[in-house]
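The following record pairs a protein chain with its ligand, pyridoxal-5'-phosphate.
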Amino acid sequence: MKDTPLNPATTAVHAGRPARAPGMPVNTPVHFQSIQYSADSPGPGDTFYGRYGNPSWEGLEEVLGQLEGAPVPAVAFSSGMAAIAAALATLLPDGGKLVLPAHAYLSTIAMAKDLAEHRGITVAQVDIADTEAVTQELEGADLLWIESPTNPMLEVADIPALVGAAHAAGARVVADNTFATPLVLKPLDHGVDAVVHSVTKYLAGHSDVVIGAVVPGEAGLREEVAAHRTLYGAIPGPMEAYLALRGMRTVALRVERAQANAAELASRLAGHPALLEVRHPSLPNDPGHARAREQMRGYGSIIGIRVRGGAEAADAVVGRTELWLPATSLGGVESSLERRRRLTAEVHTVPEDYIRMSVGIEDVEDLWADLSQALEAAVEEVGGA
Ligand SMILES: *Cc1c(COP(=O)(O)O)cnc(C)c1O
């Protein structure tokens, strides 16, 4: 056993538990404390004061670090955005150049723009699926930011090629692995310097907690990121860390089921008369299919559809669903969908008629029945098709 690396589904269940000893709990307890008895002087990771460390974070950090194949535990933050802010602060010098996907999580883009305005950062946005275009922008860059598949347009990046090009240009690389999860994609294996997560989504998986993490690729970076958390104070609450770890125990099962549901739904949606386009990397004619097959273990469980008849028809589809939740966010056990451009901050190259669907773990026939009745009802209502 000792020398055999565990498979991810086993790691998710067994890693990060208290030491095995009679009387010890099998689950990491929730430590509601701002202080604990200590005679020692403070150091990194010291738990003498609650902003420096809390034992409630440790199980979650251990599991996530191991799942990503990191040499060190993850560093948990109060949200995905707090983790992203810490990664940018640690890896991007003031006045430096950041290369960012044109389609990325909208608050990541907003944060980059804020840094450009107030911290003298130069931001270059590129089609992350276009390796040639990214490589050109890497000249003089300090940091390449990767999302793959991207939010919300599901473009798939050639991660090994991009990492090679970035490192050759002297830039470091961060991957936001929220969409894929480490069960599906392990960016550290492809050489990225750090991974960030909105743990809020698939990892926690139940739409009941907001929490984030940075997974550093080496120990020195972990110290820097943890020091940033201690100083700026974006720490996760103990209850949130507990809920996230509890959710992560089942992440392998949930991701497997959600991916199977998504692939089945995508193949049924492809060619549907009410739709202009279906995006899911599982579809053989999807532009990201070949890369996803090479880099990923599965194709993720976010689907994009473009509804004939524009924004009005897309809103009608969302409005007519009874089971699918009309809600933002993704990665929960429950299926949800959203017309992204209803958010004024969404990038304007995302089509008005585009619906992002987060496929959950329900029975696929129930999901299909609800979706197909909503599509038909919307066609009748708006006459889009
Ligand atoms: C939700 C999300 C974030 C932000 O995470 P929060 O936990 O909401 O702060 C970052 N990246 C991606 C891809 C996301 O989906």
